Amino acid sequence: MVRDAGRGLVFAVNKWDAVEKETGTAETWEAEIRRSMPDLAYAPVVFVSAARGQRLSRLLDRAFAVHSDFVRRIPTARVTRTVEEAFALTPPPSEKGRRLHAFYATQASTRPPTFVIFVNNPDLASENYTRYLTGRLRDSLGFALSPIRIVFKERKRTPRERRRP
Predict the structure, then answer these.
(1) CATH number, domain at 21?
(2) How far apart are CA 138 and CA 45, in angstroms?
(3) DSSP string of 20-63, one letter each residue
(4) Which are the contacts of 129, defined by CB distance < 8 A and separation ≥ 6?
(5) 3-state class (DSSP) for residue 9
(6) Which pTM value belongs to this model?
(7) Residues 101 and 127 in one domain
(8) Considering its fold, how many domains does the chain have in total?
(9) What's the chain's average pLDDT?
(10) Which of 55, 61, 90, 164 is buried deepest, with most CB atoms within 10 A?
């Protein structure tokens, strides 16, 4: 539901004081959370004890960091450059001799950050390539803690462009 709603999330693992700990216990638990919910890999995990007040300030810090990512805006020129670099680094697969081509990209909205990529044919955007672009945007633009949406739209050609042979 969180993923579908496009909301930010912080996993708070409570009662951490009651867990028998050895070296790597937190990493093991976090890996299990990530394995069971791969679509929420961007969500930070904080181990807390509400009864003892342990790490509650860290939980709030992470929540504020998620919100900061969630409402951040990126200039169109930077988004376009990042998409161009992603396409150059790993070109999209061709389908029946046709390949997805990006003309420009922009951030259309926040909450969640939504990027519109204007392309020749949105039907050529595969799910795998969309996941790749999501990762590239996340890494390059610094959206480590927030969900990202990508929308492909067909670029409308001007009357002058339509007249060209």
Answers:
(1) 3.40.50.300
(2) 18
(3) ---TTHHHHHHHHHHHH-GGGTTS-EEE-BTTTTBTHHHHHHHH
(4) 92, 93, 100
(5) coil
(6) 0.85
(7) yes
(8) 2
(9) 92
(10) 55
